[in-house]
Design a protein that fits this description.
Elements (H helix, E strand, L loop, with lengths): L11 H23 L7 E5 L6 E4 L4 E5 H6 L2 H20 L10 H9 L14 H16 L5 H23 L4 H10 L1 E9 L4 H13 L3 E9 L4 E10 L1 H29 L4 H32 L3 H22 L16 H10 L1 E3 L15 E3 L2
Parallel strand pairs: 1-3
Antiparallel strand pairs: 2-3, 4-6, 5-6, 7-8
Length: 378
């Protein structure tokens, strides 16, 4: 697969830093996914537009494209690296000969470890998924209404559409349908790696995990532009759910800056603690609003006699993303943290968050560059 990022002149110091980061990532994936059964390969950076990465057994070499490293997220880089490591595993650890490069053994190795067998850094949406996104786009566009009741109704209908989509997915139980669904799952990094994340950023991840059919995990990630390592948010799920989660993530975080600026002017608030408290309140208020919308939707299904079945199908759909995450990160561990105590600005943020409504469409989102966001009910 080619990338549009133009090749830059080689920089030896940049190359060295990136190669060391790739080696660290290879060591981590080697232990986590391949039980330490591989030998460390030679790494090489290339400017080949024709491939993002390659495993060459005759050289014992994994090559990675500079343009991908400069322009892609670390999750994209890692996915390509994992793909090439799967080739290395089939070649060296299993000793398979006589099969095509993407043959049955390679496909099995990838499926067991939630590795993209295509090795592409971008996933093409199915026609079904594109239809879903177009319908969600039309519904969310209605939420621009200045009438708060119309806006809330549109946002509720959009959320209901996503839920019904997953109910329909859960209805197919044939093994081939389940396998196709599992193969369609993917992952994406949202936001740049940072050395420190604030409580409201974890709250944003909680919103995505609770209401947008993705599973979220904070992963160690390297930024090839700053040559620094930090933590970044990774979301796993179906391509259409990842697109919508991406939209919600970027424009909820952008809205926090706008809401804080307005609150600071009106209330004379200032200081980091006040800003962080206000932002946490906004996100949790928005989370509470979505909780209420989903509860109303499920209650509606219960009144129609389908409540338990709906819950079971939703749980099945959410479990698929969770299983995919577990295969991607088999050594994942949950860790508790100390509770951060917000300031008085939290209450103002909570009220602000309860009045937020998603507006405009997904396709005009981060990659399209159009000015989207969240609208406050008036």
């Amino acid at each position: 697969m080619t990338t549009p990022t133009p090749a830059a002149p080689p920089d030896p110091s940049w190359d060295r830093a990136v190669l060391l980061a790739l080696l660290d990532e290879w060591e981590h994936q080697h232990q986590a996914l391949f039980a330490g059964r591989l030998r460390r390969p030679v790494f090489r950076l290339t400017d080949d537009d024709g491939e993002l990465g390659a495993w060459r057994p005759e050289r014992r070499e994994i090559s990675m494209q500079r343009a991908l490293l400069r322009g892609g997220s670390w999750v994209q880089v890692t996915d390509v690296l994992r793909h090439e490591m799967a080739h290395q595993y089939v070649s060296e650890a299993l000793g398979v000969v006589g099969e095509p490069p993407h043959g049955p053994t390679f496909q099995r190795v990838c499926a067991e470890r939630a590795i993209d067998a295509r090795g592409a850094a971008a996933v093409e949406l199915s026609e079904e998924a594109q239809r879903l996104l177009r319908r969600v786009e039309r519904l969310l566009a209605l939420a621009e209404s200045s009438n708060p009741h119309e806006a809330e109704l549109a946002a509720t209908q959009a959320q209901a559409l996503l839920t019904r989509h997953h109910l329909s997915l859960g209805g197919a139980a044939l093994p081939e349908a389940l396998a196709a669904r599992a193969a369609a799952l993917g992952a994406r990094q949202l936001g740049a790696p940072k050395g420190r994340h604030f409580e409201y950023e974890y709250a944003v991840a909680a919103v995505l995990g609770a209401h947008f059919f993705v599973d979220c995990v904070w992963v160690s990630a390297f930024c090839a532009r700053t040559l620094k390592r930090g933590q970044a948010l990774e979301v796993c799920g179906r391509p259409e759910d990842i697109e919508i989660a991406d939209y919600v993530y970027h424009f909820l975080t952008a809205q926090l800056d706008r809401s804080w600026a307005a609150h600071a002017r009106q209330a004379g608030a200032r200081g980091l603690r006040e800003r962080l408290s206000f932002c946490l309140g906004v996100v949790r208020g928005f989370h509470g609003k979505l909780d209420a919308q989903r509860a109303a939707l499920l209650a509606e299904g219960g009144a129609a006699g389908a409540g338990d079945a709906s819950l079971a199908l939703l749980a099945q759909s959410e479990r698929a993303a969770r299983d995919h995450l577990a295969r991607r990160h088999p050594r994942l561990r949950l860790r508790g943290g100390s509770e951060w105590t917000p300031s008085a600005g939290y209450a103002a943020g909570l009220s602000e968050g309860r009045s937020l409504t998603l507006h405009k469409g997904v396709h005009a989102g981060p990659s399209g560059g159009a000015p989207l966001g969240l609208e406050r009910e008036r």
